Amino acid sequence: MTSNRLSRYFLLAIAALLLLLMGYKGLELGIATTSWNLFYYYGVPLFFAVTMFSCAFLPVTARSHISVWIVAIGIGLLGAEIYLALTTVTYQEATHRTFVERWEARGIDYDGRPLLEVVEDLRDAGTDAYPKLNPATVIRPVKSGLEVSELRVNGAELVPLSTISNTVSVYCNESGEYLVYKSDEFGFHNPANLWSANHIQIAALGDSFTEGACVSSEKNMVSLIRGKYATTLNLGMGGNGPLMQLAGLTEYLTHKSPEIVLWFFFDGNDLIDLHGESQSPLLMRYLDDEFTQNLFFRQASVDETIRAYMRRNMVRAHAEKADRKTGLFDILLLRNLRDRLSQMIEQRTVPGSPSERELHLLRRILSTAKTRIERWGGDMVLVYVPGRSTIRVELEPSEPQHLKNTVLAMMAELDIRAIDMTPDLAAPPGINSRVPFPQLGHFNERGYRTIADKVMLTVDEIMKSRSLSDRNVR
User: Fold this and answer.
1) Residue 236 in contact with residue 289, Cβ under 8 Å?
2) How many Cα atoms sit within 13 Å of 283 on the Cβ side?
3) Both 60 and 162 in a single domain?
4) How does pLDDT run across 357-411, given as a tens digit for each residue?
5) What is the DSSP-derived secondary structure letter of residue 196?
6) What are the backbone angles phi and psi of residue 234, rounded to the nearest 5°?
7) Domain annotation covers residue 123
């Protein structure tokens, strides 16, 4: 009788626990959420809760066998969770280790210090240094499937578009030495005082490639363009997608009216970034001509807010030992196992082509950007930067290039000049000579030079045309 009751109570307890976890996650996520979250956090627990409840009324022998299997599976899962908790490293740590190992295999000295250690060494030497902020990282999911910024100024949401101004920023290391630069007066990767120029020739919008990730400041593609056109502004920031780029244009470039705006589109993740950005009500408001956060005039308060945020993150990083989930509560909730499962599913479910919603939103963003640039008499140029999969297809013409063809066709319809970098980056000596290692890293100096040289041909043409037009007007 005791065995009969114990097996029944055990199965009913499992069912109740699953329902409690489902309710807890429901309070956290809200009702409106993604179809994946509905399946993962509601559908799966509900299915197993109903199954456990039904099993509780099977004959005692069947219940006992099921209970033993559940205990065995639970012990196995717990063991796997403990193993992952003790061995799992963050994505940043894993990538850093890969670069260290590969450069050392080539016999090349590599600064193997973790990024935070580099920051601390600079601070110990008297330099007010911080990790470089990627602004998109402050936007986090909340209830109802929306995303909001963690930052507030006087109670109002703040989405910064740059890092701390006039401050040494430590970024990344893919070639042996960390990219360490002092940000300009608005927190971007530019020489000091460039914003005070009376006339801006060129401005570049984009993500980490535009910012010049992981090469020395004078060798990124915007700096190379600046070698010919001295007043060239770089508003690129790691993690930027199309909405963040539109925000940068609205907040900063409308005050400087550059002759040419280079919009760098990276097909490796820009539409993935756009999917997340579109969940932010604040970022979506940049499609409204009347909206602005007035960041151009609020740099002091923005800096103060980011600085406090970065300090908290640095303290948290030390306390959590690189975010390893090794606490008892984390282990009991199988956080590491669930994280690994989510990563595997996300990798398998990345769409081969963007949704109609994302393409429609991209078109609307680019059309809005073009209209705003033309209001001050500027020219817009989209630079299509391919990911490695697109370059591989370029070398195998029999395979269709869905995204590239779609985006370039969109540019033709919107009458936006476009530069396709795919053939140039695929050309001999090949893409692998233009990145640190095959399938790994941002562009190296040769890769950035390839893009800069191609872009300057178009810039030269536009500048010549504008010069002739000015002469005709006179």
Assistant:
1) no
2) 30
3) no
4) 999 999 999 999 999 999 999 999 999 999 887 777 665 654 456 789 999 999 9
5) G
6) -110, 110
7) yes
- The two counts, helices (H) then strands (E), for the chain are 19, 12
Residue 386 tokens read as 């391919």
Cβ–Cβ contacts within 10 Å for residue 199, how many? 9
CA distance 247 to 230: 24
Q: What is the pLDDT of residues 105-150, one digit of tens each?
A: 888 888 888 899 999 999 999 999 999 999 999 998 876 678 899 9
Q: Please indicate, yes or no, whether residues 203 and 299 belong to a single structural domain of this protein.
A: yes
- CA distances to 12, 234, 292 from 252, rounded to whole Å, are 60, 11, 10
The CA distance from 421 to 403, in Å, is 14
Nearest Cα neighbor of 236 from 248, 224, 250, 252 is: 248
Question: How far apart, in whole angstroms, are the C-alpha atoms of residue 110 and residue 103?
Answer: 7
- According to DSSP, the β-strands at 151-153 and 156-158 are antiparallel
Overall number of domains in the chain: 2
Angle at 403 between CA 397 and CA 407, to 5 degrees: 115
| DSSP assignments along 25-49, one per residue | HHHHH-SS--HHHIIIIIIHHHHHH
Task: Say whether both 410 and 463 belong to one domain.
Answer: yes
The answer to whether the bond into 135 is cis (omega within 30° of 0) is no
Tokens (6 digits) for 266: 């990276």
What is the DSSP track for 352-420?
SS--HHHHHHHHHHHHHHHHHHHHTT-EEEEEEE--HHHHHHHTSTTS--HHHHHHHHHHHHHT-EEEE
- Beta partners for residue 141, in sequence order: 147
The two tokens of residue 33 are: 């959420």
CB distance 214 to 441 below 8 Å: yes
- Among 140, 215, 213, 217, which Cα is nearest to 184's? 217
- Residue 67's H or E segment, with its range, is helix 60-87
Return the CATH number at 315.
3.40.50.1110
Q: Which of 87, 103, 134 is the last residue of a domain?
A: 87
Q: Which of 37, 67, 87 finishes a domain?
A: 87
DSSP designation for 258: -
